[in-house]
Amino acid sequence: MLDIPGKACGPCAFCCKVLEIDEFDKRAGVWCGHCTRTSGCGVYATRPQVCRDYQCRWKEERELGPPLRPDRVGTLLMDDPDSDEYHAVCDPEKPFSWRNQLVFKHLVSEAKAGRIVVAKAGLRAWRVFADGSWREWV
Hints:
Layout: H1 15-18, E1 35-36, E2 40-41, H2 49-53, H3 57-60, H4 70-73, E3 75-79, E4 85-90, H5 101-112, E5 116-121, E6 124-128, E7 134-136
Parallel strand pairs: 4-5
Antiparallel strand pairs: 1-2, 3-4, 5-6, 6-7
Protein name: YkgJ family cysteine cluster protein
InterPro entries: UPF0153_domain (IPR052572)
């Protein structure tokens, strides 16, 4: 995939906090011990395959503008690697970041496109529907 101008991670390392990484025994919502928040991954050259394979949707999609950068809205947008679901992953300290107007509008549009959309924060999850409604997801 070609890089989109203006879509570099830059100071954003939100994925290093909100994602669970079994290879490092890292829990969701806790900063990865290898992350330096000012310069990113400290083991970038030798990072595990799960980190190499990860793709942030913000970096991949032109229509997700600068205001939707994950660290700015507190929500990481991603395709679930184990299913056909679309996930909005939030910091457990701010579990309703997915309700940000810009993020929520995007989630509803994904649901309207036929995706199963799930917002997650730690062990909590909510399903977002095409009509803009949502409910706790078990």
